[in-house]
Amino acid sequence: MTSHRYVFVGGLHRSGTSLVARLIGELPGVSAINQAPVPENEGVYLQGAIPHTAQHGIPMHFATDPAQHHIEGSHFDSLETQTRLDRSWAPYFKEAPWRVEKSPVNLTRMRLYQQLFPLSQFVVVIRHPEAVAAATSKWVAMDHGAMMDHWLDAHDIVWRDLDYLHAVITVRYEDLVANPEATLARLAAFLDVDPVATPSDIRDGNQEYVDTTALSVSQAKRASVWGYGAGLRVQTFRDVARHPLRRITEKIEAASRHQIGRSA
Q1: Can you give the residue range of the structural domain that contains 166?
Q2: What CATH number is given to the structural domain containing 197?
Q3: Triad 73, 62, 114: Cα angle to 5°
Q4: Most buried residue, 64, 71, 130, 166, by CB count within 10 Å?
Q5: Looking at the 3D structure of the chain, how many domains does it have?
Q6: SS3 of 172-234
Q7: Tens-digit pLDDT profile for residues 32-71
C-alpha cells in the first residue's frame, strides 16, 4: 500500500497542461514536481521505465503514433514498470496524499497508467485546434491545416480511451480562462479537496491567434464534438466528468453548473 495517489495531466502541446497542473499543484494535499532539471517539470523526462527519447513525444506527431499509445496489457503493463516509475518520481515530490504529474504524452498513456496505478485519476486538457496549431507552429514546420487534422485525429483516440477510465475529467482551456474560479472548483471537487483562491494571472492566450488559419468546413464539423467552430469560436460543451464515487460526481456537477451559469 502507498500513502499517495497520482493525478495525471495530459494534452497536446500548447493546450494549457502546464497551467492546469500548476493550479492542481496549489490545491491542499497535492504535491507537484518543481524545479526539476527537465523541460516544464515533466515527469516523463524523470523516468526510464518507458523509453522517452527525441523521437518520442514529438509535438503534432506523438498522439497519433500507434507505438506511443500505451494501454492495458501492453509490454509496459507490469509490476516492474510501476515500481520503476514510482521510485523515479519519488524524489521530486513532497509527502502528500496526491501527486500531480504533467506530461503531454500522458494523453496516450492513461489506460496504461490506470492499470499500473489503479487509484490514479486523469485530467485531459483541451484547447481550440486553431490556437494549438498556431502556438505549436513556433516549434514545428508544418501546415496549419495538417496540424489541425492531427488535433482531430488525436482527440478521436482520446474520446475512445475515455470510456476505459474510471476517474477522469476534461478541462477546456477556454472555459478555464473564462471562469477560472469555477474550473478550479471542479478540479478540487474531482480530487475531493477544498478549493483555493483563484490566481489573478490567468489570461486568454487565444487572443494572440485571432487571425490564424481557420478550420475548414469538414474540420469544424469534427471539432464541434468538443464545442469548437471556425474562427476560434467556442460553444457550450458538456465536459466529461467520471468518478466511481457518486458523492464526488455530484460535487463536480455542482461546480460545472456554476461554470455554465457564469459563462452564459
Answers
A1: 5-263
A2: 3.40.50.300
A3: 35
A4: 130
A5: 1
A6: EHHHHHHCHHHHHHHHHHHHCCCCCCCCCCCCCHHHHHCCCCCCCHHHHHHHHHHCEECCCEE
A7: 999 899 989 999 999 999 988 777 878 999 999 999 999 9
